[in-house]
Amino acid sequence: MSNDSDKKRLSVLLINNYFPPEVGAASHLYYYLAKELLKRGHEVTVLTGIPRYNVDKSVYNYYLGKLKNNKYFSEIVEGIKVIRVKLPFVERNQLFRRGIEHFEIASKLFKYSKLPLKNVDISLVYSPPLTLYWTAKKIRKLTGAPYILNVQDLFPQYAIDLGVLKNKFIISFFKNIEKKAYCSADLITVHSENNKKYVNNITEQQEKIVVVENWIDNNLITPGSKDNEFAIENQLTDKFVVSFAGTLGFAQDIEIIIKTANELKDYNEIVFLIVGDGVKKSESQILIEKYNLKNIVMLPTVTKEKYPLVLHSSDISLATLHKNVKTPTIPSKILSIMSAGIPIIASMNLNGDAPKLIEKANAGYTVPAGDYKSMSEKILLLFKNKELKEELGKNGRKYIEENLSVRTAADKYEKLFQEVIKTSKVKHS
């Protein structure tokens, strides 16, 4: 933490479609950053909706009750002011409705909450949904606060690659929004050099695109004992556990995990643990039944408090993406796995950024997307070599501590905030 006495205290607005108690990379990423910025003396406000994703409908109804007859309400979460706006509960498999929802979110976040947002110095916006750039743009017009667009997933390209977006008119429509979002932002942050190249191809404004690698709170996600309540409850303590925890969506390849489990079904000590929910869950359950597999444990999404115990219960953890995912993404679960000090085996296109990170950190292995034979071989290698398994886990933890902690990210964002505010004042003076 910086001790510079002349460092200005800022009022930072984080705009994100997700925030705890919602579980997932997007909500956790901004939760970690908000807490770190708060520690450094900044005022932090999060503008988001009432919880809707990866939470039970009862959680949504609870927050709906807190709204009473209002369109938004404010609450304090660990010192962070969170403004929650009333938004609909949309099932994940309703793709067309979710597309409409992106515009609904952007409009309502601004419309219903502009009154408490008069004293913002700068906004940091999570994308996707891309449409949130419009919210930040409106807040900039209202308050004069510049905004940084934090591009995490390259939408609509990844949806095109996965075949989720096919209609030429809709693709052209979202491509137009993408260009407007990038050009409108005062600054754009991306999490890798390849992402920077992609965004620059659209904006041709390389000077306003900065790489800030994704981060994790390595004090919350730490190495821990396998002898914990989660492992005991699910009878995992005496098993060699290969886990996958996260969204079971279009981008994630769950089939390779099931095929790998089928390949290793004769190893009684090896258990595959799949923790999560999503549009591909029922399809995955059908495939498990088809193979008649007894070595897979499927559990629903856990809370952010329980998530570290899932990792502590694991000997290896997996990150998988379909071969059609060609955008250079680094799944945030990779950082969590490394921070927990366990080795990672990733299955994805080998020319992306994630394989480079795993290799650079020497924290595990990457196999080609869909290659369950190679995944099986790597699992067996670590199953039979405990020292190698522990060494790779320690390497990952060390790399996180030295390079990808939330402290490092906050250092970078503090500097960027000051620079963007200064540049914005000069521009509008």
From TrEMBL:
The keyword Transferase applies. Keywords: Transferase. Residues 226-398 form the Glycosyl transferase family domain. It holds the Pfam family Glyco_transf_4. Residues 30-217 form the Glycosyltransferase subfamily 4-like N-terminal domain. One of its GO terms (molecular function) is hexosyltransferase activity. The keyword Cell division does not apply. CDD domains: GT4_WbuB-like. It comes from the Bacteria. InterPro entries: Glyco_trans_1, Glyco_trans_4-like_N, Glycosyltransferase_grp1. This is Glycosyl transferase family 1.
